[in-house]
Amino acid sequence: MSTTAIALDVGGTYIKGAAVAEDGSLRHTERWFTRAERGPEAVLETVLDCAAELAGRFRPAAAGVAVPGIVDEGAGTAVLAANLGWRDVPVRHWLSEHLGIPVAFGHDVRAGGIAEARAGAGRGSRTFLFVPVGTGIAAALMVDGRPLTGSHTRAGELGHLVVRPGGEPCACGGRGCVETFASAAAIARRYTAATGEPDLTAQQVAERATAGDRTAAAVWQEAVDALADGLASAVTLLDPERVVIGGGLARAGEPYFAPLREALAARLTFQAMPQLVPAELGHEAGCYGAGLLAQDLLAAGVAP
């Protein structure tokens, strides 16, 4: 009987797929365009088709799926995934029925935290905060290899801590959230607003900052300061041993991490400064974590 698990990480741009062996190793990765503009039902059909494609190739004993937004992991439901158009979608039920095998269901960031805990930058740390910084910002508090979900499965919304009261409006309905300054989308947007130059990425803003562009440097420093403010609050409340930064901005390397470490240290007084390190698994973390959740089902004796 197969002991391979397949996994899907459903994002607004891509659906990432993987196969994970019984020993937890990543055997294969794949990705498809989500094409969310087609509507929520079409996205769900694409997810089912992608899963069937992987299942036909690997004959898995279980599957895992990770989705963004607000999720009910116990019920297997995507409560609200705005970038997919999903509201109260029973993803686990549909996928299990479609494939005929057990399905593990999780939140994309928490699944990524699980992968970093077992195979990435969180190894050896009892408590760490996994913080992907990309189009948005979220976090997963990992304790003994498992994520803290909260009473309503909504823990970890670091990007929506208010750090600039009365600041820019945020998609969440608040104003001055970390995400409105420190996300990759915010960095690009704020640089364009200051210069009138469109279609730049956060990475390009970082490169310009390093090259001496004063506007880019100011936008970059504002992003670092806002994230440091959010992390200082998280460190005060949670006392993590390590903070693992993922997402696209982590690829900027020391021009990002050096000022972020300095800014965070400057905000701490009695608190212990955590290790601040880049994630190791990149864009594969969420999908890999979903596969590990599926392998956990098999290890617990859930019958195919």
Describe what you observe in this structure.
This protein is of the alpha/beta class and 304 residues long. It folds into two domains: 5-107 and 284-299, 2-Layer Sandwich (Nucleotidyltransferase, domain 5), CATH 3.30.420.40; 121-280, ATPase, nucleotide binding domain (Nucleotidyltransferase, domain 5), CATH 3.30.420. 39% of the residues lie in helices and 21% in strands. It has helices at 40-58, 91-99, 108-119, 179-182, 184-195, 202-210, 214-238, 254-267, 285-299; strands at residues 5-10, 14-20, 26-33, 62-67, 70-72, 77-81, 86-89, 103-107, 127-132, 140-143, 146-147, 242-246, 275-278. A five-stranded mixed sheet has the order 3-2-1-4-8, sandwiched between helices. Strands 11-10-9-12-13 form a five-stranded mixed sheet, with helices on one face. A three-stranded antiparallel sheet has the order 5-6-7, with helices on one face. A hairpin with a 7-residue loop joins strand 9 (127-132) and strand 10 (140-143). Helix 5 (184-195) packs across helix 6. The termini are close together.
Total number of distinct structural domains: 2
Number of strands: 13
Major sheet: order of its strands? 3-2-1-4-8
What string, H for helix and E for strand, traces the elements in order? Answer: EEEHEEEEHEHEEEHHHHEHEH
Major beta sheet, specifics?
A: 5 strands, mixed
**CATH superfamily descriptor of the largest domain:** ATPase, nucleotide binding domain
Mean of residue pLDDT?
Answer: 94
Computed over alpha carbons, the radius of gyration is 19 Å
What CATH calls the topology of the largest domain is Nucleotidyltransferase, domain 5
